[in-house]
Amino acid sequence: MYAIGGKSMNGDADRYKKATFGAGCFWGVEAAFSVVPGVISTDVGYMGGTLKNPTYENVCTGTTGHAEVVQVTYDPKKVSYGQLLDIFWSVHDPTQLNRQGPDIGTNYRSVIFFHDAEQGKIARKSKESLEVSGKHGFGRIMTTILPAPEFYRAEEYHQQYHKKHGGSCRF
Prior knowledge:
This protein is an alpha+beta fold.
C-alpha cells in the first residue's frame, strides 16, 4: 500500500473509506488518484474474476474475468466519493467496451466496484448524469457498476509505477 506523505492508517481505519475503479491500465489511473488531496493511499490490483490470487500474467490471458483496478483509500472529510467519480470519468473513455486506447481485453474494462449501498447509489446517478450530458456525444456509457468482490493486490513492481519509472498513460 502506498501511503501518501508517510501517513499511516493505524488507528484511522474507521475514518477512511475505500473506492475501487477500473479504467484501463491501472498505472495511469493510480497516478491520477495518488495526487488527489484527501486520498490516503492507492493500491493497484485485480477484481471481479474467478481465480483466487491471480497474477498479472493470469489476468492478461483474459480468461480469469478480473479487471485491472485501483483501490483508493480516502478521507471522506477531505474528498467526497462524488469527487473521486469525477476523476474516474475524466481519466478514461467510458464509452469503450473492454478496452482503453491500445489496451484491449476484459481486464481493461471500465468498472466501478462499490463498497456500500451509498457508493452504489452515487455511482449509478453519476453514470446516468454523464450519459445524458452529451460529453461523450450521447454515446452509451459502457461502465459497469458492481458490488466490490475480493481485491487482489498486484505485484509490487506495478505499485506506484509512474512514481518509480515516470511516464504517463494518456489516450
